[in-house]
User: Which sequence fits this backbone?
């Protein structure tokens, strides 16, 4: 998104080249990955080829995997060679945080891309072909874990277990009444909730909890934590909570004003200094400001101060229930589901335009 905004801001500058580097040749709507996992959506439903997004735009695309950022030499190191830069936007996203739990990475599936979602889908299908009542366990009762577990319970009409270390679901939301309602809905759907218990080890067929108890698992999916791409810290950028890069009011790295960090890789705080959630709304706002300031660094224009506006989140639990708070107003049920859909379509419009919105709605 930053590249598209930047291209619009520099289109008439003949001496400026916008280069986009990405491991994939498509853009993915990662917030819908859980629907791929249950075969509600196909991979093609939640991806858009970059060739379409970049059509008629002055952006040079390089499909490559970034391994490190050389801040001193001002170049991005990739498997296709080094790419020099004058001004850089880092948007490397996030990756799972396994908190050094023994066996967690080796014996779990992750949900952080359309590819990983497709792998979960394939494993679920194989599992339900072999067993009538398999033990599916989701590690983590945050937004991703709850949405995934609700979708699995809905689509497969099965018992799925959520293991959450906090005493309630959705601990980062901090709204007890929402946690209670979501817990009740999941229980009605047949989900089993294991709360206030920490996972200390993951084995091929079971989880070991801190109190010594064990949970059988035919398929374990890890959604218990994310951190910024480790490339951020490896490259020498100053990091804070979750390994995210510390940025200033212009979305710049303090010691390297030519480097901007956006999205899940950036530590965004509110006026009180509290970290804001990694979500689409904040990322889009950052893209707008970072692109404007990158262009300003070329033209010498005054830079824009980034003032994040977090207007709320909506959570879906299966196909029938949703809950959230938008602009301070609580919404739930079908209305929440509809609003979540509208928020997604707004995002599609921001990224890909009217044509893609029409594809999704017609």
Assistant:
């Amino acid at each position: 998104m930053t590249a598209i905004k930047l291209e619009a801001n520099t289109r008439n500058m003949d001496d400026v080249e916008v280069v986009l580097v990405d491991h994939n040749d498509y853009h993915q709507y990662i917030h819908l990955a859980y629907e791929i996992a249950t075969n509600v959506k196909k991979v093609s439903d939640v991806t858009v080829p970059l060739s379409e997004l970049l059509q008629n735009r002055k952006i040079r695309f390089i499909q490559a995997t970034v391994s490190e950022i050389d801040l001193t030499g001002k170049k991005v190191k990739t498997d296709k060679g080094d790419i020099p830069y004058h001004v850089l936007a880092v948007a490397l996203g996030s990756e799972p945080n396994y908190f050094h739990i023994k066996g967690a990475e080796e014996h779990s599936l992750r949900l952080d891309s359309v590819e990983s979602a497709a792998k979960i889908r394939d494993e679920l299908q194989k599992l339900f072909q072999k067993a009538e009542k398999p033990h599916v366990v989701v590690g983590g009762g945050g937004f991703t874990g709850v949405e995934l577990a609700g979708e699995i319970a809905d689509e497969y009409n099965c018992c799925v277990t959520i293991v959450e270390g906090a005493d309630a679901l959705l601990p980062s939301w901090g709204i007890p009444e929402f946690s209670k309602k979501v817990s009740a809905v999941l229980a009605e759907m047949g989900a089993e909730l294991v709360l206030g218990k920490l996972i200390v080890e993951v084995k091929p067929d079971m989880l070991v909890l801190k109190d010594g108890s064990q949970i059988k698992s035919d398929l374990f999916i890890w959604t218990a934590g994310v951190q910024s791409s480790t490339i951020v810290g490896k490259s020498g950028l100053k990091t804070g909570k979750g390994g995210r890069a510390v940025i200033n009011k212009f979305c710049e790295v303090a010691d390297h004003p030519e480097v901007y960090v956006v999205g899940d890789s950036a530590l965004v705080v509110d006026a009180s200094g509290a970290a804001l959630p990694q979500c689409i709304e904040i990322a889009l706002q950052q893209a707008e400001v970072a692109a404007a300031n990158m262009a300003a660094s070329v033209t010498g224009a005054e830079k824009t101060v980034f003032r994040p506006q977090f207007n709320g989140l909506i959570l879906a639990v299966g196909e029938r229930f949703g809950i959230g708070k938008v602009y301070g107003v609580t919404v739930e049920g079908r209305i929440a589901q509809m609003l979540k859909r509208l928020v997604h379509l707004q995002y599609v419009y921001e990224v890909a335009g009217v044509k893609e919105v029409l594809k999704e709605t017609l």
